Amino acid sequence: MQRHSADLSKRLAHYGITEAVQKDVHISKPVTWNDDNCPFYVKAISTGDLDELKRLIGRDDSTLANEEPSSAHKSLASLATLPDDSVFEAASAYIFGNSASLKHHKAAIEKKLGVRTVNVAAANDLVISSVITYDSGSPAVINANSITFMPGGQIVCLGSLSVTANSIINQTA
Fold this sequence. Notes:
This protein is of the alpha/beta class. It contains five helices and eight strands; from the N terminus they run αβββααααβββββ. The radius of gyration is 18 Å and the shape is elongated. The relative contact order is 0.21.
């Protein structure tokens, strides 16, 4: 589990956000994250550096000691001749696992991936009584002081999404 500051303003500063623009957000009808009607303040942060990408989405190698890349990824002699799918698998192993054994492939993976964007949403208190859908190839982060799930409330993620809050309350029962 990733450790984060209990202070929302410090967590937001991690992303260069000075405050939760929407103090209280209530999702009472279905919303798709990328729609114009999405009530979140979303900051898009782009980076071409894999280690920065890991930091932005909250994947710290020190917390992933037991999550090693596969032996196939460790033994890669060169990524230059591999098909795109294999390079993307190596990128996933680097980003979501312990990257130490893939450090020698970092430059090749970064070249193949190019610049990636992380979408960071910020709210003080988030109440969800409908469905939030996140469907994107870009990773995303929700930062809030509190998140309350009411009956019918859920987050459907069809991508990579990290959620950080001081408290998560389940009132769906």
